[in-house]
Each structure stands twice: as C-alpha cells, then as structure tokens.
Amino acid sequence: MIEKVGYFLGKLAKSEDGLEGLKRGFEKFFGELKEFQDFDFSAELKGKLVTKSRCPIYKHFSIWCEKYCLEFAKGFAKAYGVYKVKRVERQPNRDHCVFEFEI
Q: Does the pLDDT value for residue 54 go beyond 90?
C-alpha cells in the first residue's frame, strides 16, 4: 500500500522519466517541505542518483522509518522507471538518511 502511495505522489511530481526526472521529482516534492526548518534534502546524479536528507519524521513517527520509508521511495522511483533502490544510511543511527537509485 505504501509503495502505491509513493508511486501516486511520484506521478504527481513527474516531468520526465529516468534518474534525471526522479531527481527533479524529489526536488519538487521535498521542496514543498521547506517550511519545516529541521528538514534538509539534496540529490546528486553521477551515474546513479544519491539522495541525502535530514528528516524529522523519525522523531515523531519512527515506525515510518523502520517499515515504510523504503517502500515509499521504491514506489516514488517506480513512477520514473527506476527500480533499483537501496537505503545506505538511516537516521537516527546516522546524521542523514541516504538512498541510492539506479536504472
């Protein structure tokens, strides 16, 4: 179910397919969260897309991070034709959450 929600929201933010489109989609989606001062997001495309964020959700709803965040990211990426998704680092064990996306 969470993957489908991610897919739906990915489609809403979509302007093009592939990793470049996914990067822009995440930037558009997370750009809406600028009002939350404790949220940071960055994305870098060098062969694969690497996203890095400092997200306040784990402080208030830790089950999201444990069970749903990766599924959401997979669904969002699927909307762009990106199927390889891996979480490399996760808060609160690290300073940021880091994901890698590949075609």
A: no
